[in-house]
Amino acid sequence: MAAKYVYFLIVFCFFTCTIQAQYDSLEMERVIRTFEKADNADVFTRISDSLYHISKTDQKRFILQVQRRAELSNNKFLKAMSLNALGLWYAELNLFSDAYTAYMKALDIFNAIDHSSGKFNVLSNIGALYYYIGDSKKALVYEFKAYEIFKQKLPNRYSKGASACLNIGSMYGQLGNLPLARTYFLRALEYYQKDPEDSITRAFIYNNISDTYLFADDIVNAEKYAAVAFEIKRKYGSRREKANGYLNMGQIAMRKDEFKKAESYYLTALSLCELDAPNENLYGVYYGLADVYESLNNVKEEIKYLKLSYKTRGHLDSLARASEVKNLEIKTEFRQKAVNDSIANMAQIKVRDVKLEQKKRESIYGIIALIVVSIIAFLIFNRYRITQKQKVIIEEQKHLVEDKNKEITDSINYAKNLQDALIPNPAELTALFPGAFVIYMPKDIVAGDFYWVHEIKNSEKTNGRQILVAVADCTGHGVPGALVSVVCINALYRAVNEFNLFEPNEVLDKVNIIVNETFSKYSKQVNDGMDISLMLVDYANNEVRWSGANNKLIYFESDAVYGLKPDKQPIGKNEDHKPFTLHTLPLMRGSMFYLLTDGFSDQFGGDKNKKMGFAQFKKLMESNYNKPMEEQRANFEKAFIDWKKDCEQTDDVSLLGIKI
Questions:
Q1: Is the pTM of this model over 0.90?
Q2: Distance between CA 508 and CA 547 in Å, rounded?
Q3: What burial class does residue 593 get, using C-beta atoms within 10 Å of its C-beta: 0-12 exposed, 13-18 middle, 19+ buried?
Q4: Is 597 in contact with 473 (CB distance < 8 Å)?
């Protein structure tokens, strides 16, 4: 059970507190009046302190009052400060577009009055916006602008230098560049030591530095910095921060195989957590304890805490969906009400027409008409009673189906979390291959496709850095395909870690044996398996070695395209299985490799609603192979969407590109 590590803290330069207390309007007016008598350096602190004590609703009202007062007094600095505060208010509500607009207006004013501290704050806040939407490259542009202002205009404002370096380190961490992240975290620490205004922030910096060492397997330095953070949190932190400190020390102890010590840290952290309010700390503690008891062979406790971690994770994931589900329920109720009102209105019109028709008949046929109407009324009433009974039955069945569908969907979503834990995230991929991108689009919630990457370490057979990378397509898609993928991923790990194999052909031969042994345990015949493209990047010998089971390898070298044909046999049951072929290529700088499944080329769409086909997909690769990785990923995704149009997605889609 591999522990996951969550890195990095991004710091807003203005207010980050959750506001609870109400603020009297007269007190607001008093504070606003004091701004007019305060100098520029004091206004920032006064606004920040004032916002700390008021509710979300009063925050915006307070900011707008400050803004109106600034307009009346023509105080440009105060107006810019209020716009910056408004941007932060929008940002905390995830209204990033509105926040960006407010920030840019504030930046224009600060540029006009040449106020360095104001420009620094706004640029850093814009960088934070881009960080939170996952665009760390754009975030770095703004954060470096802020950092330059600090170095040139505010060299003695050490807290600003620390803030900028902390943010830059976090952004490099999101991009997977841990050495640069660590460099800026250490620089932030230097600034905070010159002006130690915030002990808890320093603790988080120590934690971030520790995490970068931990990810690089430098346990000594990881423990050194984590211990300092731990002592600060124990002295000055809240219960939640203390719990986080014990959690981090438990993770360090686990990496040192000090299982009893890790258990003690985790249990102390658990005593500090709020058990009735699930959060990431509580999830980390439960997961860590399950890891400890697995190592101590205490199966009962391992299962107990593993279940608790899954339950907490599921609760955290469900909170994000709660608002969307509630809105959907409201819309559904409204639509149902509209339908019911329409049916009732139509019935009333029909009854009125019957009455009008009856009044026109003043003849001897009146009695006959009355009898006919009576018969019709009886039939209608009888039909109405039957319809009402059927409606009740249908409603009951509808609710039953909806409940069952929800249970199934929740289970599949939970299975997705488990499958995601087995598949490396893009940051892990780019940490090993800086020039790489991945497109992974399951047809359903879970997938039969997967990609896999593993760095070979501590092997007597290797004498340098070697990385295995694979893209695979298991039988089927959705839940059946996902189940097969778990078996196949486990087989890959066993072939490498348990049998110490790393040559692609040997790994595939062993994986084939493991998969067949696994499925042979069942009484019914199982013919499932996978197609796979497995490549070894051998930096020690400057070679690329590859083997494939029904999945080809495409690569570009010196502006020419090449392809390696796979063995025409799958992993799994095969009557005439032969050893897999090993292909060897020289490792040339600038070469572009594509590992893929057939989901892209098999997609129906286009003007004639036909498969894209490999020939057209190959042309797409030829027109993109020499472009930057992020641009390639965007172009391939756009091409797929443009081709598919309104057609249903045919299969899982996986494409992994690596530039050497």
A1: no
A2: 8
A3: buried
A4: yes
CA atoms within 13 A on the CB side of 558: 3
CA distance 123 to 147: 9
> Most distant CA pair in the chain: distance in Å?
111
For residues 132 and 88, the answer to whether their CB atoms sit within 8 Å is no
Q: How far apart are CA 83 and CA 94, in angstroms?
A: 16
Count of other CB atoms within 10 angstroms of residue 634: 15
Q: Which of 270, 279, 227 is nearest to 247 (CA)?
A: 270
Q: Tell me, what's the pLDDT at 243?
A: 85
The token duo for 470 is 């694979």
Under 8 Å between Cβ of 554 and 477 = no
The helix, strand and coil proportions of the chain, stated in percent and rounded to the nearest 5, come to 65, 10, 25
Give yes or no for a contact between 534 and 527, defined as CB atoms under 8 angstroms apart: no
Residue-wise over 382-405: b if at least 16 C-beta within 10 A, else e? eeeeeeeeeeeeeeeeeeeeeeee
Contact call for residues 19 and 50 (beta carbons, < 8 A): no
279 vs 319: CA distance, rounded Å: 11
Decide if 472 contacts 532 (C-beta within 8 A): yes
Residue written as token pair 């320093």: 202
Element (H, E) at 605: strand 604-605
Q: ∠565-568-570 over CA atoms, to 5°?
A: 120
Predicted local confidence at residue 276, as pLDDT: 64
Instruction: Specify the length of the chain in residues.
Output: 660
Cβ-in-10-Å burial (0-12, 13-18, 19+) of 630 comes to exposed
| Structural domain boundaries in the chain | 423-659
- Number of helices (H), then strands (E), belonging to the chain: the values are 21, 13
Q: How far apart are CA 178 and CA 606, in angstroms?
A: 42
CA 29/CA 25 separation, integer angstroms: 6
pLDDT for the residue 313? 80
How many CB atoms are closer than 10 A to CB 271?
13
Which DSSP state fits 604? E
597 secondary structure, DSSP code:
-
CATH (residue range 423-659): 3.60.40.10
Q: What is the DSSP string of 279-328?
A: -HHHHHHHHHHHHHHHHTT-HHHHHHHHHHHHHHHHHHHHHHHHHHHHHH
Cβ pair 649, 445 in contact under 8 A = no
Distance from C-alpha of 522 to C-alpha of 500, rounded to nearest angstrom:
28
CA distance 96 to 125: 11
Query: What stretches in the chain show pLDDT beneath 70?
Result: 1-56, 195-199, 276-277, 318-356, 362-366, 369-370, 373, 405, 407, 409-411, 415, 458-464, 522-523
For every residue of 512-578, DSSP letters joined together read: HHHHHHHHHTSSS----EEEEEEEEEETTTTEEEEEEEB--EEEEETTEEEEEPPBS--EE--TT--
Instruction: Please give the pLDDT value at position 411.
Output: 65
Bridge partners (DSSP) of residue 87 are none
Residue 497's pLDDT is 92
